[in-house]
Amino acid sequence: MLKPYQELLTDGLNFEGGEATRLVDPIGVGAVGGSGTRLLVEVLNLSGVAMAAPRNRAGDALEWPPFRKLLGDETLAHEPREIRVQNILHAFERLLLWRRHMLGLEGRAGWKVPETFHWLEELAAFFPGFQYVHLMRHGLDMAYSGNQNQARNWAGPLGIRLELGSDGRVCPASMLEYWLAANERALDSAARCMPGRFLVIRFEELCRDPGTVLRELMAFLHLDAGEDHVARLAALVQQPGSVGRYRRHDWRAEFSATQLARLERLGYRA
């Protein structure tokens, strides 16, 4: 556990400000794990955003707060949840500020952690100018993804019981169920808690027309949208061979009509 978080357990909760005052407008990037968010880290880095680091192999910020561990620690259990969350996010703010300083930057800071969308209400309340970018990839492709960590970690809190195959892997129907519930939660939370401050990017559209999508992203985040810069960013986009992988499976037998109807409501068709 990084020092600012460890100090919450050893020194107590000392922050009483309620919301951030020094870093009010960070950028968060999230998605269901395996959606392609690593590309957005590179895009934002090249656009002058001080992205949280160090990062793991997937590009996720290791400075991200260990919310569940801290909120579940008996040392802090006597404090109201709201106060605990504010102190956790203040510690995160300190780390983001330090990272920006170490990078020699003065503009915006940000992070990429897929599970960010589970904490939108708390983040929006603490960071007054927080903006969130949510990446979505076709749910049927995601149902056959090898990246199952987020589903395993967060299915329970979403009320989903995962079914495993004989190989111990989460079965496609359960993976799709998690994808549906997670994206429904992300969009509902963002619309309710931070209207006008979130942007949904569809991975397939990014691959198909990167210039247009990245131009929209730069405008949304108030970053350099010059044509030369956008062209450099667009050159980074490569469509992986895994796009459309669900067609190589017997997907019609895997998923229910209800699931496919929810998929369509989220903007995707089989």
Would you kindly provide a written description of the structure presented here, covering whatever features stand out?
With 270 residues, this protein is α/β, with parallel strands linked by helices. It contains 13 helices and 5 strands. The N and C termini lie far apart (43 Å). The protein has helices at 3-10, 38-46, 67-71, 81-102, 120-126, 139-143, 149-154, 172-193, 203-208, 210-221, 227-234, 251-254, 257-265; strands at residues 27-31, 50-51, 109-112, 131-136, 198-202. The protein has a 5-stranded parallel beta sheet with strand order 2-3-1-4-5, with helices on both faces. The model has no long low-confidence stretch (mean pLDDT 95).
- Percentage of residues in DSSP E strands: 5-15%
How are strands sequenced across the largest beta sheet? 2-3-1-4-5
From the N-terminal CA to the C-terminal CA, the straight-line distance is: 43 Å
Q: In sequence order, what are the helices and strands, one letter per element?
A: HEHEHHEHEHHHEHHHHH
Helicity range: 40-55%
Short description:
This protein has 13 helices and five strands. It is an alpha/beta fold.
Keywords summarizing the entry:
13 helices, five-stranded parallel beta sheet, 46% helix, alpha/beta, 270 residues
Blueprint of the fold:
Blueprint: H1 3-10, E1 27-31, H2 38-46, E2 50-51, H3 67-71, H4 81-102, E3 109-112, H5 120-126, E4 131-136, H6 139-143, H7 149-154, H8 172-193, E5 198-202, H9 203-208, H10 210-221, H11 227-234, H12 251-254, H13 257-265
